[in-house]
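Quick one, T. Sequence first:
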Amino acid sequence: MDLVKIKERLESRKLELEQRIGKISDDVRHVDRPVETDSAEAVVDHENDEVIDALGNAAVAELTDVNRSLQRLEEGSYGACIECGSAITEQRLEVMPYAL
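Structure tokens:
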């Protein structure tokens, strides 16, 4: 397993996620829309807000896993399951390098 390559992929993903979270945070903070009097529009706006929140939460959760994986790389415990200690297959880590 090429740990240097994996570290590069994790760091690249970390940057992408940090940018995505920043953009979502900016979008949420800068929404200055009037209160809708049309109930259909209000429902759509509310649903859109929920989607944005879900995307932000998913990005934060993934970023947490990426950071933990980077920490485990530094500690030398990368590639072992945090639940049972068994080795995570290289195929799994290729697809999801932040698998814990």
